[in-house]
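Dear all,

This email documents one entry for the complex benchmark we are building for the journal club exercise. For each entry we list the sequence lines for every component of the assembly. Then comes the predicted three-dimensional structure of the complex as a token string, followed by one or two observations. Please use this as the template for your own entries, and keep the labels exactly as they appear.
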Amino acid sequence: MYDTEAIIRISNVNKSFGRLKALDNVSLNVYPGEKVVIIGPSGSGKSTLLRTINKLETVDSGQIIVDGFNLYDPAIDINRVRMELGMVFQSFNLFPHKTVLQNLTLAPIKLRHIKREDAERTALELLKKVGIAAKLNSYPTQLSGGQKQRVAIARALAMNPKIMLFDEPTSALDPEMIGEVLDVMISLAREGTTMVVVTHEMGFAREVGDRVIFMDEGKILEEGPPEHFFQNPEHPRLRKFLEQIL
Amino acid sequence: MPEQKVVIDVGDGAAIPTKKDHGLLSAWRIAFFGAVLVLLYLVIVHPDPYWNLMKFIRDGVVVTFEVTFASIGLALILGLFTGLGRVSHNRFINLAASTYVEVVRGIPLLVQLFYIYYALGQFVRVPDMLAAIIAMSFCYGAYMGEVVRAGIEAIDKGQREASVSLGFNEVQTMRYVILPQALRTILPPVGNEFIALLKDTSLVSILAVSDLLRRGREFASESFAYFETYTLIAVVYLIITLILSKLVGTMEERMGNHVRH
């Protein structure tokens, strides 16, 4: 299916929090342009796995290569790697002391050394794209949850990253706001962005996922294209999980 | 049942009156206008000795403010670095900052003043005023460090994660994301320390620094009017600290109206 090299290579990764095994010999490759959706019950290690990709979590053993950089090679600059990885959090984590526009322009100006006017022009385009351009001078507290998350997505995109990581982006939202955030993510997916998404939204997984991954107790128990995954789940644990949530 | 969290918040400065706390605000008004009335009464009805006393201690008020402002400025700088040191992942820096805080907090300010002025003064002779400012800043730098540390630790860890995920390093994260937010939360406690420091400057009167209290002592020892002198000194200190606590309270309210997360 993919003739190019994987842009994310996770090999035999282990991680424990005290006695809890959060990642148990996990391996995963993600290819450029691919949309990988990770599902699983709470505490299954799916968020931990996602967070190892930009080294918000360090692993105990194993290897992670992102965009050609081995994250555990002391010679690499992790900040350079992170600039190519957009991250969207469950709790938005917008900068409350900055306006919406400033949230988007801070990193491009300081890290990519883009001129303020250019950064603002790009930011405005992104805000239009996520449907929130009218709020550019608002502060995050003045936004609804759905608006905050759309700004957070735009903030990550403002760095023009090669890969977008989403950590349960709709889990903290009121039900009526989930749609507006998913719509933005779906249109991103259509543009060919490489995406790794941890989510409970099975509809989203089915619609945009090239590959769905099911995790439980720190292990990848099943993976495959969504049609197969949802219609003929093989692993009994996955069958039980799908029965419970669908 | 929701978990009950008891917070006992007692600062060492004056209580800060805000509009939310009506009782305290009334208490502030009684104390402040009471003090002003007493002062006016004494000066107008008994100009001898009170008016003479006022003229005598005027320089002292200026010195008290000089020591306060110089010390708070230095203490803030010292406190910023101490606070950053206290949250640093570098073990050496963290240990150095923590030890400084532990040592300073364990020694009474008066003893620190004596130590810097008399003990160290045997080796290095520094002007009285400078010794006083160094000692006050050294002591309050440690307290301020704890305020800064608390302010930094109060910022949600998601802020750091969002910042480093964009590619900012730890120093940039501190500068652009954490500190601007922390400064906002620490302003009220800093105001509180400022008032506490102003009161504690009365200790420097021991070191031949002609502050408010020292001028009072000089007047009293010449005139033997101890009751009158110390009554006036107490009222003047009270009026100054009450004005400052009101200013801090107003500032706190302004901040409250500003954007919060």
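Observations: The CA atoms of residues 189 and 216 of chain A lie 26 Å apart. Chain A has a mean pLDDT of 94.
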